[in-house]
Here is the input.
Amino acid sequence: MNDCIQTEARLPLLDISRLAGDAAERAAFLEELRGAARRIGFFYLSGHGIPAELESRVRAVSRSFFALPEAEKLKVQMIHSPHFRGYNRAGLELTKGKPDWREQFDLHAEREALPAGPGRPPWARLQGPNLWPDDALPELRPLLLEWQSRLTEVAVRLVRAFAEALVGDAGALEPICAGSPNQTMKIIRYPGRQAVEPEQGVGAHKDSGLLTFVLQDDVGGLQVETAQGWVDATPLPGTFVVNIGELLELASNGYLKATVHRVVSPASGQDRFSIAFFLGARLDAEVPLLDLPPHLAAEAQGPASDPENPLFRNVGANYLKGRLRSHPDVARKYHADLLG
Ligand SMILES: O=C(O)CCC(=O)C(=O)O
Ligand SMILES: [Fe+2]
Here is the structure.
């Protein structure tokens, strides 16, 4: 897995606080943002305003979660949730059919489940409460929900910046984010590799939402596929690694890049911890095609030129399909009627 890595290459670093600067500063930021997302689809983001103190408490509580006795973690196992929330042991989640060697705890927006009924679309099954280890680790719930709400605010600010950078209208993607976007979060532990563990921390993939924000520790292992080969997203304190997801790629007709990435299990034997936040569109949305100005449209020949692209139809249906594929055990237990 470690062949042809360009360790000297670096992802761009963007400071989102420049959006609050004067008109020239703002325009320069938007230009850099557009360029970075077009060329590579990955960058470091600083200046986001999330307090360092909150960040360190969220990191600490995530480690405490993984340090809980196995029996406590299994009480909140995803197999207990029809809504694909909760804990999974290493090896249970699949990428392209192969097990990822990471243990993880997933949460989404905290909402009531929608009652079953004849008019309810299948993707409405995704909505529901999270699972929480409230007895064993009561701080987990408030801290992760605080993190989710802070990250949603930063991510929506960035979606607005992309819309402004592409079509001059910050609100152009508002309808698919407003109200209740699909906020997915994972806290993750990649076990340090000993002799027998697989190298696949998470297999090569694109993210399916609008934007992803990853808070990583100092161990390393996240890699980005570029024309020059795999590039390390070397840890940079105070930043998130941000990348474009398939919905933003689609809305921009491929002008913005949803780039393939992966995590190689830490070979040092030291565990790696990360916290990933994914902003998706509302589950009831359809993805709009942004009306790019001619000089940008000329460069964009992406997925939107395929009228059969299933992503165009319903965001929720597509997301549900992804969950069913990644978690076959949950799919069989609760959603067997949807499996072909
Ligand atoms: O843990 C990371 O650094 C990235 C994880 C990732 O790419 C994902 O969960 O989609
Ligand atoms: Fe990813």
